[in-house]
Amino acid sequence: MSLKNIAFVAAPSSEAEKATARLIKQYGGVSPDKADVIVALGGDGMMLHTIHDFLDRDVPIYGMNRGSVGFMMNEFSEENLPARLDRAELIEMHPLRMSATDLDGKIHTSIAINEVSLLRETRQAAKIKIIVDGVSRMDEMICDGVLVATPAGSTAYNLSASGPIIPLGNDLLALTPISAFRPRHWRGALLPAKAKIAFEVHDPDDRRVSATADFNEVRNVVCVEISEDRSLAPKLLFDPEHNLEERVLKEQFSA
């Protein structure tokens, strides 16, 4: 892969900004609209923001970790960047599209690379109905919330909520409850990626619920519809020896 025109973007941290300045001095840089590749420096949050910012561009993104976790990032090094980009492996993923209707009847749409999550806003537990492909699969779940995660997002919030890790390349989504009270021992479900998922909030005036697609939050929702958006396919680049597929696999054997 020949990637000559590099655009650098940095998280708003001193470490990321200083590293970016050094890379631009060494390799030059172009604006993102003229780039063959975008190099993002920061953590996983920065990578998510970068993917969202350039969804309308058919340009690969290569992340280097100047943050904390950096699960979606490559190892940081200032050496031989063009060579690393040339041999990097490309992974495409399809995000989720969320359509959330609030108490005022307004519809909000957002894209999620990792997950769509519903969370209670008040001291009262949420009561949520789960519908898959037009069929009610659970008339009422009493819980703190529920989420739907992509394979790329299955190692993030989904894993913290005891959801399953999904290896990349599997056309599956994780539907995972968050602190479910009833049914108490339900652990969630694996659904085909083509599934159309809907959540209906019971008693939404008193038991208020928010819906968040990655970092875009909608308050006081009454209904949330989620489906995979096949029209979008963000492209991420990873070093062959440290690719995302291997990291997802290794995460399943970590203590």
CATH architecture of the largest domain: Sandwich
- Name of the CATH first level of the largest domain: Mainly Beta
Helix content: 10-25%
Whole-number mean pLDDT: 93
Oligomer: single chain
In DSSP terms (H or I, runs of 4 or more residues), the helix count works out at: 5
The run of helices and strands is: EHEHEHEEEEEEHEEEEEEEH
**Main beta sheet strand tally, sense and closure:** 11 strands, antiparallel
Spans of at least 5 consecutive residues with low confidence: none
C-alpha geometry = elongated
Helical/strand content category: alpha+beta
Task: Please give a structural write-up.
With 255 residues, the chain is an alpha+beta fold. The protein folds into 2 domains: 6-93 and 233-251, Probable inorganic polyphosphate/atp-NAD kinase, domain 1 (Rossmann fold, 3-Layer(aba) Sandwich), CATH 3.40.50; 96-228, Tumour Suppressor Smad4 (Sandwich). Helix content is 17%, strand content 40%. The chain has 5 helices and 16 strands. It has helices spanning 14-27, 44-53, 81-87, 157-160, 244-251, and strands at 6-10, 37-42, 61-65, 89-92, 96-102, 107-112, 115-120, 126-132, 135-149, 172-182, 189-192, 197-201, 209-213, 216-218, 221-228, 235-238. The strands form 2 sheets. Strands 5, 6, 7, 8, 9, 10, 11, 12, 13, 14 and 15 form an 11-stranded antiparallel β-sheet that branches. A hairpin with a 2-residue loop joins strand 8 (126-132) and strand 9 (135-149). The radius of gyration is 19 Å and the shape is elongated.
